[in-house]
Amino acid sequence: MTVLRSITLFVLAAFAEIGGCWLVWQSVREQRPWWLAGLGVAALGAYGFVAALQPDSHFGRVLAAYGGVFVAGSLLWGVLVDGFRPTRYDVTGALVCLAGVAVIMYGPRR
Q: How far apart are the first and last CA of the chain?
């Protein structure tokens, strides 16, 4: 159950961080309304709280592992929201990152 909770929190954190960054990007780079940046900043703040709910108590481990989730999630966001088409190297890199997440977070501990 702890692994399932951790994975769920990683997905929620990715949604908040990537979504928040995307909203700021839309406001600044795509010249959309300024309030989108405000929503983005709020989402980025929510990301910090979600990340702090991880069952593992080691900040460095959680954030290092989350980096792999961020990589894969960013590519997926691009596909679903922006029409991005990843190359096989993008997909391979994301899978390597997710393997790293599994090793860092869920590998055996003494």
A: 20
What three-state secondary structure class fits 32? coil
Short-list 14, 8, 20, 23, CA closest to 71: 14
Predicted pLDDT of residue 97: 98
Task: Tell me whether residue 47 is exposed, middle or buried, using C-beta atoms within 10 angstroms of its C-beta: 0 to 12, 13 to 18, 19 or more.
Answer: buried
Which structure tokens are listed for 110? 């003494």
Length of the chain, please? 110
Per-residue pLDDT at 1 exceeds 80:
no
Residue 105 Rama label (left phi>0; alpha psi -120 to 50; beta)? alpha
In angstroms, rounded to a whole number, what is the distance separating the alpha carbons of residues 55 and 44? 20
Q: Is 4 exposed, middle or buried (0-12, 13-18, 19+ CB in 10 A)?
A: exposed
Give the per-residue pLDDT at 10: 97
